[in-house]
Amino acid sequence: MPDTDTDLRAHHVGITVSDLEESLEFYRDVLGLSVLDRFTVSGDAFATGVGVDGATGTFAHLDADGARIELIEYDPDGPSCTAESVNQTGAKHVGFAVADLEAFHDDLPEAVETLSEPQTTASDTSILFLRDPEGNLIEVIEG
């Protein structure tokens, strides 16, 4: 299929957070992602586009080895979602890969919530699930 102006291509994974600074500290300082950009967007076009009257969004874009992670704090903020399990319909997670999962796990600050120790699955994939400060699921695989 030839490329056209309407072909989709990946751009970013967006995560809505209640405290941008706390989340940014986690993704930058704990996970080691580089900050690409920080900005704020407001106005009628933005509010209409996101479907939230009077919305302002404060953004941080981070680089995860070529994948863009977008953290966004909204004003006004909406109700919080409850922490989800990976097997719930509609559950989402962000996946990262590291060369040494055990070393990555050992280097995590004690305050970081993990679902378990690193595990090697029947498909011979080593995985670790953890939560960011907002309770969002993050999968880290060895590879």
TrEMBL record:
Keywords attached to this Swiss-Prot or TrEMBL record, sorted alphabetically, are: Metal-binding
Q: Does the keyword Mitochondrion apply?
A: no
Extract the Pfam families matched here.
Glyoxalase (PF00903)
List the protein's name: VOC family protein
| VOC domain boundaries | 9-143
User: Which organism does this record belong to?
Assistant: Natronoglomus mannanivorans
Show which residues constitute the signal peptide. none
Query: What start-end ranges are recorded for coiled-coil regions in this protein?
Result: none
Q: Which InterPro entries match?
A: Glyas_Bleomycin-R_OHBP_Dase, Glyas_Fos-R_dOase_dom, MMCE/EMCE_epimerase, VOC_core
